[in-house]
Amino acid sequence: MNTTRCVLIVDDETAVREMIVLALEMAGYETLEAADGNQALRMLTTHQPDLMLLDWMMPGASGLEVARKVRNNPDHQGVPIVMLTAKEDEDAKITGLSVADDFITKPFSPRELVARLKAILRRTTPKGIDEPVEFSGLRLDPISQKATIQDAPLALSPLEFRLLQTFMTHPNRAFSRAQLLDRVWGGDVYVEDRTVDVHIRRLRKAIGSHHEALIETVRGTGYRFSPNEK
């Protein structure tokens, strides 16, 4: 399975790219390299990687800017993004997670990198029912990995899609933040509870003001999807 997976590595440091390429190719992945954000965006016009490994601090377009452009591109918004960063403060983490699926703090070991990317790629295809599910004009199709409102496509990251799928396949069930972290992010990845709140805000914004009330905040517990129709 890994031999068919391709990772686009975007970092301005040649030595870092070479180390990552070696680690990933030894683990069976195909790799593409870009030395800056603009080169990465050009490569995306002709390539469709399974994952982007994106350095935050680069000359020219920063990793954060590149991630935002990818998320706003209908052709590539579903590509998982992992940010590489030397930033460790909480605000930076929250900012990074607003556009990326995960981040890895420098310095890191090749083994840690491979393990984290494997975890992300395992979660790229959500587990669950295969039949489309629809409430109040909001429709989610697990097979095509697409979500729409009144037939208009929604721009969702892979994490947001899995979060919405969890809600829509369990209507009226209250989930704690810990339960959502386990179901959506996976039990083998450590992220803070606040991460859930960040992605809930993004999901509500994505589905629009008319539908954001479908995702209710349950005081003292977490969140619940309460459709207007069943």
From TrEMBL:
Domain Response regulatory: where?
6-121
One protein family per Pfam: Response_reg
What does the entry list under GO cellular component? cytosol; protein-DNA complex
Q: Which organism is it from?
A: Litorivicinus lipolyticus
Major location category of this protein = cytoplasm
User: Residues bearing 4-aspartylphosphate?
Assistant: 55
Q: Which Gene3D superfamilies did the record assign?
A: 3.40.50.2300, 6.10.250.690, Winged helix-like DNA-binding domain superfamily/Winged helix DNA-binding domain
Query: What is an annotated GO biological process for this record, any one?
Result: regulation of DNA-templated transcription
> Is Nucleus found in the keyword set?
no
- Residue span(s) of domain OmpR/PhoB-type: 130-227
Entries under InterPro entries matching the protein: CheY-like_superfamily, OmpR/PhoB-type_DNA-bd, Sig_transdc_resp-reg_C-effctor, Sig_transdc_resp-reg_PhoB, Sig_transdc_resp-reg_receiver, WalR-like, WH-like_DNA-bd_sf
Record GO terms (molecular function): phosphorelay response regulator activity; transcription cis-regulatory region binding
Biological role stated in the UniProt entry: This protein is a positive regulator for the phosphate regulon. Transcription of this operon is positively regulated by PhoB and PhoR when phosphate is limited.
Gene expressing this chain: phoB
Keyword field = Activator, Cytoplasm, DNA-binding, Phosphate transport, Phosphoprotein, Transcription, Transcription regulation, Transport, Two-component regulatory system
Its subcellular locations are: Cytoplasm
The highest taxon in the source lineage is Bacteria
Q: Which NCBIfam families match?
A: PhoB (TIGR02154)
Task: State the name under which the record lists this protein.
Answer: Phosphate regulon transcriptional regulatory protein PhoB
- Whereabouts does the entry annotate DNA binding, in residue ranges? 130-227
In terms of SMART domains, this protein maps to: REC, Trans_reg_C
